[in-house]
Amino acid sequence: MRIRKKTLGNSNIVGAKIEARRKELGMKQIDLLTKLQIKGVELTASGLSKLEGQLRGVCDYELVALADVLDVSINWLVGKEDK
User: Fold this and answer.
1) Looking at residues 19-44, what average pLDDT do you find?
2) What residues contact residue 56 under an 8 Å CB cut-off, 6+ apart?
3) I need a labelling partner for 27 at 20 to 30 A (CA). Which of 16, 67, 70, 79 fits?
């Protein structure tokens, strides 16, 4: 597993939580990308990396799919509630 070299950006508030939850579930990025693709969300590995690094914004439909795949609420992802 590679360690993030760059500091987190400020393009979204959910990226760090998405990355942490993905790792907590033992998922690799490719696993998450595959599950998102099944839900109709086309995201590249680079796009996911930028999203997790908070260097890219996240669309509402992506947020819904991410919450579903990661088995968390959207409110948890945006910091409005505890897991």
Assistant:
1) 97
2) 9, 11, 12, 47, 50
3) 79
